[in-house]
Design goal:
about 160 residues; alpha+beta; 5 helices
Length: about 160
């Protein structure tokens, strides 16, 4: 069973273990393979500034992922995922898909009509994953010197009131 536990700076060690298991992603996103405590505190401050909810993903009593999301993105004022990261040991196990599906169900319960995410163009694995989850690109841009694809998934049928 997938659970979402509100994250806070007291769980810094857990978060650091998860994020540093994904060194290829760190290199693409942050320009270095290993993040330190200061890097994570900067992320916390940025998440607060953007009014993001920050969660650890728990699976079978272990924290295995990080999810940051907001209900109003800065660019499009729509629900968005800022960070979705599953510990490297759990890649290719189906856990990432189960985690996303559980999160999507929560958004549907909140009556969200869509969800957006920006994906690094160099992160081919992530692009494949989000396409598989039903997201489609709607914009290309440069952010902090990196090529990004903005992607979106409709959660409601057009014209639906549910």
């Amino acid at each position: 069973m997938i659970e979402f536990t509100r994250n806070n700076p007291d769980r810094l060690g857990v978060e650091k273990r998860i994020i540093n298991s994904q060194q290829e992603y760190n290199l693409i996103a942050y320009g270095k393979r290993i993040l330190d405590d200061n890097d994570l505190f900067i992320q916390y401050r940025e998440a607060q500034k953007l009014k993001l909810s920050r969660y650890l993903v728990r699976y079978e009593k272990s924290y295995i992922g990080i999810l940051d999301f907001g209900m109003t993105s800065p660019r499009h004022q729509k629900p968005w995922i800022s960070l979705f990261l599953i510990e490297k040991n759990f890649q290719s196990t189906g856990i990432a898909e189960k985690t996303y599906r559980a999160f999507e169900e929560r958004l549907r319960e909140k009556q969200a009509g869509c969800i957006q995410i920006a994906v690094h163009a160099d992160n081919k694995r992530a692009l494949q994953f989000w396409n598989k989850m039903g997201f489609t690109p709607f914009d290309k841009r440069i952010y902090e010197g990196k090529r990004m694809y903005s992607m979106e998934k409709q959660l409601k049928e057009p014209g639906s009131r549910k």
